[in-house]
Amino acid sequence: MSVHPIRRFPASLARFGLLLALAAAPAALRADAYPESKVPSPQYRHGDILVPEFVADEPVRAAWSAEAAEHFLDRGALAWARSKSCVSCHTTGTYLVTRPALSATLGRPRDEIRDVFVEQLRARQGTPREQFSKGTRSGEVVYIAAGLAEWDRWVSGQLSAETAEALELMFAIQLQSGDWYNPGCWPPLESDGFHLATQAAMAVAAVPTWEASASPQAQAGLAKLREFLRTTPPPHDYGGTLLLWAAARMPDLLPADQRQRLAERIWSQQQLDGGWSIRSFAAPEAWGDGSRAERLRSEPDFARPPSDGHQTGLAIVVLRESGVPATDPRLQRGLAWLERNQRESGRWWTRSLNTDRGHFVTYSGTAYPLLALALSGRVNGTAAVQEPSRSRALALSESAAGR
Questions:
Q1: Domains in the chain, please, with CATH?
Q2: How many angstroms separate the first and last alpha carbons of the chain?
Q3: pLDDT, tens only, 48-93
Q4: Which of 138, 158, 164, 253 could be joined to 180 by an S-S link, Cβ 3.0–4.6 Å?
């Protein structure tokens, strides 16, 4: 007696096969064959791009693939940019602050995403200043500046006029406290002003020659930013991780002993399987405005949260950029966890802190692992990602001097 093929596999595999089939099918066929109410909600969708929803039991790949991860990041960013035409911290923002560093190993990032950043810069330049104390507008400007700066650093090798304008706007909307307004609506990326302050510092560090040509207002804002990060305790260990990342790129930001303490906090939370869990880096009440605390505490694995792609990738990136060698046995355990836990779609699983629909944190939860593996020389068998060449740094300097 023959058995229907689907019955030979667990339900999770059957469901994932359906999702892949939906993603591969032409848009018209998908719409005709499945009523809208019965089509699984995609994580990203625009035109022929359909990235299926992410589920915790998606099968793990037999061998990890940089190309699969890059394909997911590329499609997600394009679908978001084309459907939303905005800079979001969780997708297009993450794409442009991480993907340019992978240019040497995975090719040039999408110019289309940079174009969206420039378009949004122009739109934000006409926004009344009081509007930046509402919603996510301030966060968008910080990520626009950071993404354009990373593009200059890794792709063009020249400080662009757009990046300089974005940095000026970023400091023009800075709060008196030295950070930026952040409503705390979608942890971890749209969580607090401290997060935006660390991202702003990394934006400046990406184009170090910009400071000399900055306006007096922006230079004063940069001084205020440095003072804020030096004197404001991180709101939680996740903020401490971001502070260490900023300090790795802006070496004069923190003294060596403080950087060492921040690194030790990261190491102290490495799990037995080699990975890290984002849920171990802040109390439930400390995420954003605290409104998700009850939900987070009710999770079945609250007492022992599993390792995830976002925090494991982020921890390794920060430790590597802080000088930890890729040969460190503890780091090797983390890298091995990443290589063991990529899913068939190219993503790494990270459960959302906000909602069990969408799980958009899996986007940064894939970008960070890919960057971590590249920084450790595990992408395409190449050497670890290095700083731009001397000639590129010279081009940045000459561009700034000629403006």
A1: 1-40 (no CATH), 41-287+309-377+389-402 (1.50.10)
A2: 77
A3: 999 888 888 999 999 999 999 999 999 999 999 999 988 999 999 9
A4: 138
